[in-house]
Write a structure and sequence with these properties.
By secondary structure, the protein is of the alpha/beta class. It has a single domain (6-264), classed as 4-Layer Sandwich (Metallo-beta-lactamase, Chain A), CATH 3.60.15.10. 24% of the residues lie in helices and 26% in strands. Belongs to the metallo-beta-lactamase superfamily.
């Protein structure tokens, strides 16, 4: 039998924004602007035998200030409240190298870190420090990825890769060159964790690319992959930054300091 996991989405921050700011060239749709919050999440897949942390959130101290963020929980403290000790976690998936997804990787000293090969190669390559590419990254975070490679703790996904029984990563690109989607087997089917392959459900449902991307055609292709994954019986899509995640899925109660912030996907 395939291993199954409990999957949690932890909402640790939010930022008030607008539709015109969030969707690329919003004006071409001929629709009025309006408010649209950007939530920040990371994810945990766990069972009695194995725990995988999918992304690690941004660092609340020591990172470059980002505008208008409202911090709802400190990521490492949230993990501790959920009974997850970062120093004991055996695997972390770094879906891509933006600041809000790999900021706390140094807190996982024993973990194998899974990242897309194209992602690593791009952010350690000649274009990574050009202004528009560099803005959503932190140099120290990228340097840590290089250190992980040198330590032999980085695993590179060149294509779909099963990283543990019941957990597969799929490079889709688009938002970043090696953006990963994570598919986790659950008791009820599969949880498709889009990360930033789709920040909002509307990206998939209405073909509306997010404002930050490295490949527009690749972004559209990623939406096609997500639609196909979501059509499989028992599959649920979990968008990467959508406030609707904590409305579409039941909240996990009884965790001190995390009331209303943890959605139980399965």
């Amino acid at each position: 039998m395939t291993a199954t996991y409990e999957v949690l989405a932890i909402r640790y921050g939010t930022r008030p924004s607008t539709r015109a700011e969030m969707f690329l060239n919003h004006h071409v749709y001929g629709e009025p602007d309006g408010p649209l919050d950007l939530d920040f999440y990371f994810w945990v897949a766990r069972n009695d035998r194995h725990t995988v942390v999918i992304d690690t959130g941004y660092r609340t101290k020591g990172a470059a200030p980002r505008k208008q963020r409202v911090e709802l929980a400190e990521p490492l403290a949230a993990l501790a409240a959920l009974g997850v000790r970062p120093e004991k976690v055996p695997q972390v998936v770094a879906t891509h190298a933006h600041y809000d997804h790999i900021g706390n990787l140094p807190a996982f000293p024993a973990a194998e870190v899974v990242i897309g090969r194209a992602e690593f190669d791009f952010w350690t390559g000649p274009y990574a420090r050009r202004g528009l590419f560099a803005f959503p990254t932190e140099p120290g975070d990228v340097a840590h990825l290089v250190a992980l490679r040198d330590e032999g703790r980085a695993t590179f996904a060149d294509g779909p890769l099963t990283i543990a029984p019941g957990i597969e990563v799929i490079p889709v690109g688009g938002h970043t060159p090696g953006q990963l989607v994570v598919v986790v087997s659950t008791e009820s089917g599969r949880a498709v964790l889009t990360s930033d392959a789709a920040h909002f459900y509307e990206e998939i449902e209405r073909d509306r690319p997010f404002v930050w991307l490295t490949d527009l055609a690749g972004t559209y292709r990623a939406y096609e992959v997500l639609r196909e994954l979501g059509e499989a019986p028992g599959s649920v899509i979990v968008a990467g930054h959508d406030p609707d995640v904590v409305r579409r899925f039941p909240l996990l109660d009884g965790v001190a300091g995390l009331d209303g912030l943890v959605a139980r996907i399965a």
